[in-house]
Amino acid sequence: MAILKVARMGHPVLRKVARKLTAKEIESDKIQSLIENMIQTMHEYGGIGLAAPQVHESIQLAIIELDEQNDRYEGAKGQALEVYINPKITVIDTAEQAFWEGCLSVPELRGLVHRPRKIQVDYLNRKGKAKKIVAEGFLATVFQHELDHLSGMLFIQRMKEMSKLSFIDEYQRYWAKDEEDDSEGSLED
Ligand code: NI
């Protein structure tokens, strides 16, 4: 296993539309060991998700793990570690919610992002089996942030008000305890 280098904003790999994986590729040693290395990398950096383009692989694969015990995400519903391959998002409820987002590929920044509050994701797991999951609230935002990476999108492009783009220190000083907006927490993938 290995800790992988994370691509940062400005690297072209983060802006490409990632390609789908074939069933044969999914079961290959190459992809299975990439998955292991991505899990180790996500844990090393304390993220709650990691998409393959963030480790320089332009393929439709992402991992998400949301630990309920992590008090950074207090109140959020947990989600066990899972691998999402060739995922497709369907919006179930277009009503928007806002959370402050961060990203290992956009270090030191936080931004307030509005996204649909409830979605369904159809995907293949690491064994190539077709699965689906319905997510709402904070978890729905986590999915949309991660899967955006597979379309070459970063959270900054989803922001409505650039005045809500902040460095982490300033976010914590001026925005973290703000009750005015409808954000309920922050995420860093
Ligand atoms: Ni990200």
Q: What secondary-structure arrangement, pairings included, does this model have?
A:
Elements: H1 23-26, H2 29-45, E1 49-51, E2 61-66, E3 79-103, E4 106-124, E5 130-136, H3 138-148, E6 165-167, H4 168-175, E7 183-188
Parallel strand pairs: 3-7
Antiparallel strand pairs: 1-2, 2-3, 3-4, 4-5, 4-6
Bound molecules: nickel (II) ion.
Distance between the termini: 20 Å
| CATH architecture designation | Alpha-Beta Complex
Sheet of most strands: 7 strands, mixed
What would you call the structural class?
alpha+beta
Question: What is the element string, with H for helices and E for strands?
Answer: HHEEEEEHEHE
Strand content bin? 35-45%
CATH topology, which one? Peptide Deformylase
Mean pLDDT: 92
CATH superfamily: Peptide deformylase
- Assigned CATH class: Alpha Beta
State the helix count: 4
**Small molecules bound:** nickel (II) ion
Portion in helices:
10-25%
Radius of gyration: 16 Å
Show unreliable segments.
Answer: 179-184
Domain tally: 1
Q: Tell the overall outline.
A: globular
Number of beta strands: 7
